[in-house]
Amino acid sequence: MDDSNDVTKCWLSPDKLEQLERTAGEDGWTREVAVQLMGRCGLRASEVSYPSDSNLRYSDDGDIWLFEVQGKNTKGGAKKTRDAWMPDDVADDIHKFSRERGLSPSEPWVDASTPSVRRWVKEAAHAIAEQTGEQRWQSVSSHDLRRSWATYHLVERQVDVRTMMSIGGWSDYSAVEPYLAEPTESRIGEAMQV
């Protein structure tokens, strides 16, 4: 958590993200799917209502699930379309969700406004704060899910920046740079040992 500026920034570990997903899901599977799309696929809250079954495809070239997203253009102007990455277990959940709901291929998985998606995250985070007494949950926002996703992949998994820019929808390095952690002496030592 970083509350040194006007906006409090939170980073969720994979375990904490899973806890948020489960808690959101207590108020409906759609909410859990929305949290998964932000926290495990890196979508912005404003992008969650776009994808549908017709946008999801399996790439034989990469042995991965990709889905089309129409979202923010970080250089300004009209929305930009990109392929986002989806983990296998999220794709399994999406397939089950879509079948159970009887969604047509063009129906979005999450049919909700951006303010509703943001509110769902806040409600789930507040519920966890109430259940656990951990007041830091009160500060968690929908953007923290994307921040956690980006930081986890860039820092912990060391995914290259160009790949993250492509699947995360950042047009240039300056847009993704805030998600990169400052190197510590131990991290420098690990990286530079021969």
Explain this structure to me?
There is one protein chain. With 194 residues, the protein is mostly helical. It has a single domain (14-192), classed as Intergrase catalytic core (hpI Integrase, Chain A, Orthogonal Bundle), CATH 1.10.443.10. 47% of the residues lie in helices and 10% in strands. It has a 3-stranded antiparallel sheet with strand order 1-2-3. A hairpin with an 8-residue loop joins strand 2 (64-71) and strand 3 (80-86). Helix 1 packs across helix 4 and helix 2 (29-39) runs antiparallel to helix 3. The two termini are 33 Å apart.
Shape: globular
Average pLDDT metric: 90
Count the beta strands.
3
| Helix percentage range | 40-55%
Number of domains: 1
GO molecular function: DNA binding
Organism: Natranaeroarchaeum aerophilus
Pfam families: Phage_integrase
Domain Tyr recombinase: 7-193
